[in-house]
Amino acid sequence: MPKHQNKRSWKFKKAKRIKKTRKIRKTRNIRKTRNIRKTRNIRRMIGGVISSPPSNLFPLVKINKINEDTIYRIEIKKCSYYFYGRNKKYLLTIIDDEYYMLKLDESHEDFDITSIDGIEDSLSSTDLRENFRMLRELDNAGIIFILFDPNPRAPRACPQSLDLTSAQMKLLECNTSLKEKCDNLSLHLDYVYNLHPPHNKLVSLNKDPSALILCLYNESGCISSITIDIVDIVDGIITIDIDAMTDTVSEGNKYIKLLVCTVIRISSLLSEHHINRITSTAMNPMSFYLLMTYFGGIVSDIEDNTEFFNVLEKKGIIINSETDYRELFELYEEYEEYEKSGDIFRVTIDIELTRKNIKKATAAFPQILAEIVC
Question: Residues near 191 by Cβ (< 8 Å), separated by ≥ 6?
Fold first, then answer.
C-alpha cells in the first residue's frame, strides 16, 4: 500500500446509440439519460441542469458522519451502497451504462454542468468509466461532483452485511480483560457506515464506508484499526484479508499485535461458513516479523512473492518449521534495497486458521495485554 503521511500503514495480506432526448425541465424528477456517443449530444443528454431524483428511483439518504464527513446510502436495484459526501454538492453515477446526476442536498441549486471547462471533451467517450477517469482530472468537476461507480470492475452480487452478533459478544469478553489492564481502551467491531458516536472518530478517513473494521478506541477515538474483507471462496477456502493502521503517536504500543490476535480469536464467528485463512501483505519488517513469529504465519506461495522466493533461493534459506524468522527479518531489511531502486517491496503472508493457531492466539491474549501501553 502507499505510505500515508504521518501514519504507518500496511496491508495484512492481493452503447446504445443515443437517441434524441427531451430537454430536461427544472423539476423535482430526475430523468434517465443515454450513454454518450458524440460531443454534440451532451447538452441534450443532461439538459444543462441537475434535478432531485424521485424517491422511489434511487433512494439517497444521509445515514452517518465519520470524522465530520457525511456518509450517504444509495439503493440501486435493491442493493445498498455507501459513499462519503466529501463536502460535494452533487452525485454523478453510472447505472446500467447510463449516467444519473443527483443532488446530495435539497438546498443546492440546480447546476449548469456545461459551465465546467472541459466537461464536453471528458464526456464524449463511449467508455463511461473512462469518462469518469477524465472527469477526475478536471479540477472544477472534482470540486463539485462525487463520481460514484457502484460496479467499477465487473458484475457482482449485491453487497451483503454479515451478522456480527456472535463476534461482538466475544469482544465483550475481550474488553472485560482489556479494561483490567487499561480502563481507557476498548475494542469495537462494526461496518464503518454504522460507527455512530462515540465510535465515529477514526485514525484516518481512508476507509471504505462499507468496510468491516475492528477498532481500538481511547478517549480520542479509534487509534488503531484493522479492516476485514471476507473474500470469495476459492477451491472451498474462505479467506479474510486484513489491512492495519495505527496512529503515529500510538506506534510501538503493541496495538496491532492485540488487534491481529483478536481477529484470529473471533474469525470463526464472522461467517456461517468456516473461514480457513487470514491473508496479509506485510509492508515493513515489523509486520512481517509479527505475523511470522507470533501467529503462525507462512509466506504465501503466490506469484506476488516470486521475488522474495528468488532471494531466499539465492541465500540458500529454506522455510520450514525450524526457520529462524529473525534471519528472515534481516533478509527483509536487506531486500528493502529494492525499494530504493523504485520497486515496491511486499510479502504476502497466510495464517491458516487451524485449531492450533486459534488456540495459540487465545493463549497469547493475556500476555499481549500485559505488553500493551495504555
Answer: 161, 209, 210, 211, 212, 213
Query: Omega of the bond prior to 198 within 30 degrees of 0, cis?
Result: yes
pLDDT of the residue at 9:
40
Give dist(CA 20, CA 22) in Å, integer. 7
SS3 of the chain: helix, strand, coil, percent, to 5: 35, 25, 45
Q: Which residues pair with 7 in a beta bridge?
A: 247
Which residue in the block uniquely carries the three cell numbers 464467528?
Answer: 269
All domains of the chain in start order, with CATH = 20-148 (no CATH), 165-371 (3.40.630.30)
Q: Which of 286, 289, 374, 266 is nearest to 278 (CA)?
A: 266
Model pTM? 0.74
246-264: burial string, b at 16+ Cβ within 10 Å, e else: bbeebeebbbbbbbbbbbb
Distance of CA 299 to the CA centre of its chain: 23
Contact 60, 102 (CB under 8 A): yes
Distance of CA 33 to the CA centre of its chain: 31
In 208-285, DSSP assigns E strands to 212-218, 221-230, 239-247, 277-282
CA distance 171 to 266: 8
Per-residue confidence (pLDDT) for residue 117, from 0 to 100: 60
pLDDT along the chain (374 residues), means of 10: 41 40 39 36 39 62 87 84 81 73 68 61 62 65 68 59 88 93 93 88 75 91 89 74 85 90 90 82 78 83 77 73 68 64 72 88 92 91
What pLDDT score does 372 carry? 92
Q: Rounded to an integer, what distance in angstroms lies between the CA atom of residue 178 and that of residue 187?
A: 8
* CA separation for the pair 258, 254 (Å, rounded): 6
Distance, CA of 163 to CA of 269 (rounded, Å): 9
Beta bridge partners of 83: 72
Amino acid at 157: A
**CB atoms closer than 10 angstroms to residue 71:** 21
Residue count of the chain: 374
